[in-house]
Amino acid sequence: MEKKRVGIIGLGLMGTAITERLLEHGFDCFVWNRTRTKAEPLLALGAYWSDNPLADCDRVIISLYTSDIVESVIGELLNTLRAMQLIDKLSGKILIDTTTGAPEQSAAMCAHLATLGVQYLDAPVSGSSEQTRRGEATVMVGGERNAFEACNDLWPVLSANIYHIGASGSAAKMKLVSNLALGLNRVALAEALVFARGIGVDPASALEVLRGSMAYSRVMDVKGRKMLTEDFTVQARLSQHLKDVRLILASGVKLPLSETHCQLLEQAEAMGLGDEDNSAIIKAIQQCQS
Hints:
Elements: E1 5-9, H1 13-24, E2 28-32, H2 40-44, E3 48-49, H3 53-56, E4 59-62, H4 67-83, E5 94-97, H5 103-114, E6 119-122, E7 125-126, H6 129-133, E8 138-142, H7 145-149, H8 155-158, E9 161-166, H9 170-198, H10 203-211, H11 219-229, H12 238-249, H13 256-270, H14 281-287
Parallel strand pairs: 1-2, 1-4, 2-3, 4-5, 5-6, 8-9
Antiparallel strand pairs: 7-8
């Protein structure tokens, strides 16, 4: 059976994990990144470089840092196609945007691309790059149902759980809801471990008990040991979650816990921890003790 072609734009932690996952499952991956050197390990695994995945593939996955960057990159690639007089060849293509971005910008991108005959799905991933690499993440999708179903062969590869939320922009909203709860679970665990040490309870023992109690959350499995050992090898960058919390607060909904969380993340970033794993939030809480 002929392999299926998929484009990937953006080769950060998540884009790389997605590409590795697709290669593992027999897809032909055509990759693009502003810094081409990031593609080299994937090319060694069998991916192909593409100067413009929008031209080379009918389905293209986008994994970038913000909605503004998505708009900029897609704009550049579209302008290249216009210059090559290929813009009319886009009809029927599907863009799958896994970026955690602003819902209103996702909806606007969908409307703009529709004028070119391109279908756009906002499909943010709930889970770290490592969970995505193992196929354990959750993907939420917003956009037209027919475009969603046209990617039915991709979803089981990309995620353990897949939810079609509704119209374009709805998945971007749901991802912020998810990240609010996930982030507060993580900072609550960090504070609990700092509290345990502060009152003379061994933090490792506390983590073991918490994992067997009604206080349990999956964050304890993924981040607990990292916090105890201060192994902040990146699964998801702290600064990236700060970006997401700022998007959450920009909604205008009064969220006192998220406001405090934002302050702690900003404190951690000021401590030079922005590029570390988001479990490094424990260091900001520890600093509050001095």
